[in-house]
Automatic annotation (TrEMBL):
Family: Belongs to the glycosyltransferase 20 family.
Keyword annotations of the record: Glycosyltransferase, Transferase
Entry's EC annotation: 2.4.1.15
Molecular function terms from GO: alpha,alpha-trehalose-phosphate synthase (UDP-forming) activity
Biological process terms in GO annotation: trehalose biosynthetic process
UniProt entry tagged with the keyword Glycosyltransferase: yes
Pfam family, one: Glyco_transf_20
InterPro entries assigned to the protein according to its UniProt record, in alphabetical order: Glyco_trans_20
CDD domains assigned to the protein according to its UniProt record, in alphabetical order: GT20_TPS
Name the record gives this protein: Trehalose 6-phosphate synthase
Taxonomic lineage: Bacteria, Pseudomonadati, Pseudomonadota, Alphaproteobacteria, Sphingomonadales
């Protein structure tokens, strides 16, 4: 069997199953996929050194090997904080107003991709399959091809693909996408992102696109583009639910709510997650109903993210101000309606919190998939399940159609959905949950990785020109 080499910017191995550490959908998914099949996980160590050397640190993890390199501060600034998180992330989440186009960012991004190709190349053996993750490495496949690598190389994009008319605002967008077409297979989280990509290839590249097979052909080179919606590690997550930690966390949160219905949000502190808009929706609900402080407790768990980037500092300040103002206006002397917590929890604790909450609020303005929505569903008590309120603009909405789907920009609609969830009869909650749970159980991360890798090994592209 061929060896798997996974490449991602962040190599985040939780110390022991269920430990805190892997925050962010990608890290959680890759730990699970590699744990099952073994191989090498290659990426940035998260450390900085004065000068880049490309020296690899190899470590044994939970059934696989990690190989990491240190980057120099200028690389981190220009590639990670710069092009990845100040240019591509906002643009790909439809926030063209936040996207910054600096030449140094683009140069830093290209340089780091070259560095990564140089460090990775010696690790690749003849039969290996290379699976690159996410927007940090769109040109990595091309760099490896330029160095003579002929192995199967795939890319999975964990974030949305923007509409063509937004993407064309990116300087050198043609070059970026042309580089991507050196991958054999490109995977997207949803059909919507896939269709945007195919539209771009046809319109801006003049590529020949076969919609049915997802084949994008330029000259005699072809790439397969398909949707592979990611899932959670269902069995592992359900096993966490059986732990004492999960049970204690459920009781701890549930007991502290003083009989109020608990609604929960769990999100990295990112402007794409729609957190201020969520508070605005709660504002409508609380100002429309006198006694709401005695009925609803909202717990928002939001670990800070990408703190060197200004827009993330701003979203944090905005949220602090809004929750403070909200609690000032709606608290009673002995009751506070929003608990706002800026820290990570281990996954077993999260399971317990999800189960204690009768409403899961997942209302991103734009999200590649959103695994929190799936974790919330998995953690529910089948005999008394909670209700998922889910943004139409999360990739997960394509699959989780039995959630209460909302437009997160429409505070009135979200407020009404929360009200509906608070009063939904048990029979309807069960009927919705059973359908949602079947999706989460049957389309999990193991199947996702198997499907992607089967496509990568199955559809040989035509040889390079
Ligand atoms: P993103 O990848 O944009 O962060 P997802 O919802 O797809 O969004 O994935 C987030 C992952 O990070 C989930 O698995 C979630 O459980 C985890 N996570 C988010 N916040 C925390 C936290 N405070 N503590 C532990 N894990 C967290
Ligand atoms: C999302 C991205 C991942 C990223 C994660 C956490 O899930 O798709 O690529 O790793 O967020 O972000 P960070 O910048 O901390 O790695």
């Amino acid at each position: 069997m061929s060896r798997l080499i996974v490449v991602s910017n962040r190599v985040s191995v939780a110390k022991g199953r269920g430990a805190a550490g892997a925050q962010g959908g990608l890290a959680v998914a890759m730990s699970a996929a590699l744990h099952k099949r073994g191989g090498i996980w290659f990426g940035w160590s998260g450390n900085e050194v004065e000068h880049f050397t490309g020296q690899l640190t190899m470590e044994r993890a939970d059934g696989f090997t990690t190989a990491t390199v240190d980057l120099e501060p200028q690389d981190v600034d220009e590639y990670y904080n710069g092009y990845a998180n100040r240019t591509l992330w906002p643009l790909f989440h439809y926030r063209i107003d936040l996207a910054e186009y600096e030449n140094e960012f683009g140069r830093g991004y290209e340089r780091v991709n070259e560095h990564f190709a140089n460090s990775l190349h010696p690790l690749i053996e003849e039969e290996d399959v290379v699976w690159v993750q996410d927007y940090h490495f769109l040109p990595l496949g091309e760099r490896l091809r330029a160095q003579g690598v002929r192995n199967r190389i795939g890319l999975f994009l964990h974030i949305p693909w923007p509409p063509t008319r937004l993407l064309v605002s990116l300087p050198h967008h043609e070059r970026l996408v042309a580089a991507m077409l050196h991958y054999d297979v490109i995977g997207f989280q949803s059909v919507e992102w896939l269709e945007s990509f195919l539209h771009y290839c046809r319109k801006e590249h003049g590529a020949e696109v076969d919609e049915d097979s997802g084949t994008v052909r330029i000259g005699n080179r072809s790439t397969i583009a398909r949707a592979f919606p990611i899932g959670i590690d269902h069995d592992e997550f359900m096993a966490l639910g059986e732990t004492e930690i999960a049970k204690r966390s459920q009781q701890r949160l549930g007991g502290s709510a003083r009989k109020r219905t608990i609604a929960i949000g769990v999100d990295r502190l990112d402007y794409s997650k729609g957190l201020p808009e969520r508070i605005d929706a709660l504002e409508r609900l609380f100002s429309g109903h006198d006694d709401m402080v005695n009925q609803l407790l909202f717990v928002q768990i939001a670990p800070p993210s990408r703190e060197d980037v200004r827009s993330y500092q701003q979203i944090r300040a905005t949220l602090e101000q809004k929750t403070g103002q909200f609690n000032g206006a709606h608290s009673d002397v002995d009751l506070v309606p929003i608990r706002y917590v800026n820290r990570g929890f281990c996954r077993a604790e999260l399971f317990g919190f999800y189960r204690a909450a009768k409403i899961g609020l997942v209302t991103p303005l734009r999200d590649g998939m959103n695994l929190v929505a799936k974790e919330y569903v998995a953690a529910q008590d089948p005999e008394d399940p909670g209700v998922l309120v889910l943004s139409r603009f999360a990739g997960a909405a394509e699959q989780l159609t039995d959630a209460l789907l909302v437009n997160p920009h429409d505070g009135g609609e979200v407020a009404r959905a929360i009200w509906t969830a608070m009063h939904m009869p048990l029979a309807e909650r069960k009927a919705r949950w059973e359908k949602l749970y079947a999706v989460v159980r049957d389309a999990d991360v193991i199947g996702w990785a198997d499907d992607f890798l089967a496509a990568l090994m199955q559809d040989p592209a035509l040889p390079e020109a």
